[in-house]
Amino acid sequence: MRLQKRLALIGALFLAVFSAGTAAFMLVEGWPFLDALYMTTITLSTVGFQEVHPLSTGGRLVAMALILGGTGSLAYGLSVVTAFIVEGELRDVLGKRRMEKALAKLHGHVIVCGAGETGKHVVEELLKTHTPCVVIEQNLVRLKHLERFGPTPVIEGDATDGEVLTRARIGVARGLITTLPSDKDNLFVILTARELNPKLRIVSRAIQDDSDPKLRKAGADAVVSANQIGGLRLVSEMIRPQVVSFLDSMLRDPHRVLRVEEAEVVPGSPVVGKTLGALDLINRVGLVVIAKRHGPEGDYEYNPKGSSRLEVGDFLIVCGGPGQIDALREVLARG
After folding, report:
1. CB 284 within 8 A of CB 271
2. pLDDT at site 313
């Protein structure tokens, strides 16, 4: 039972005791309402003032019943409030312990700095695609709002603080996305993060168009401008509405998560030297390879043929659900 309901029950109980006591004094002693109410009040509060009128035997019995009933109601009320406080503190302690355990297990995760209007969409997408992440945000209310997307570790703190980033296990993180509302704050996050983990992939939000080179110079691997993305979207809605509708349907389908993803051919993979046709990915995992790229800087081979051979460092670009992507990576890792 929630605290509001418990308090309402306690209030109703006290009101019932007061009403019953007042009515009893009026009935047994024949007193007017105000005298009966006053006698009920001093009896329940155990103040001990002089009786309004001499009590009869029946009046004394009423007074004794009120004392017992009032004391019991008060004890119940105090127990409810005390239990709520203890349970709340216990929940906080257990919640913090669970959070620390969840943080300790993180490896190869993404750190999201900021849970504002942009950050919450970032977290939602990461959770939809089964990408482990941890969120850093100073506003506790914003962190609470993330609970609707699903369970994910959160840290209430300043993302520009090295100790907070260390607590988020930045040393073993896969990447960091900073979505703070100020380019200056994002710049500080990038500098601190890059110092703590030189190999970390960092993606930053840019507020001002001229902030891109500054953020990249500070250590960002990629910078996303909301203004630029918004402009491209507006033009796309005008000249290629069916493509936009297709992508929206793919990204926002509530019944299925479908994304364009990448999978890398790592050293030691048994598929090295094999052709795409030999892998038969369409039948094994239900995926069609849209493009292939050798290394992060190589040229794209669009709609690669079945005779295209795989090499270490190749990236396969495919479109599928999280389960299919996991199956593809399993094939590339184990053959």
Report:
1. no
2. 92
The structure tokens 């941890």 sit at 134
| Overall average pLDDT of the 171-177 stretch | 96
Helix (H) or strand (E) holding 184, with range, is helix 183-196
C-alpha to C-alpha distances, 226 to 211, 245, 249, nearest whole angstrom: 12, 20, 21
3.40.630.30, 3.40.50.720, 3.30.420.10, 3.60.140.10: CATH of 106-231: 3.40.50.720
CATH topology of domain 3-102: Helix Hairpins (1.10.287)
Q: What is the pLDDT of residues 133-142, one digit of tens each?
A: 999 999 988 8
Q: What is the mean predicted confidence (pLDDT) over 102-123?
A: 92
CB 129 within 8 A of CB 107: no
**d(C-alpha 293, C-alpha 324), whole Å:** 20
pLDDT score, position 296: 81
| Predicted TM-score of the model (pTM) | 0.63
Task: Give the Cα separation of 170 and 3 in Å (integer).
Answer: 39
pLDDT at position 227 is 87
Question: What is the full DSSP assignment across 137-168?
Answer: ES-HHHHHHGGGG----EEES-TT-HHHHHHT
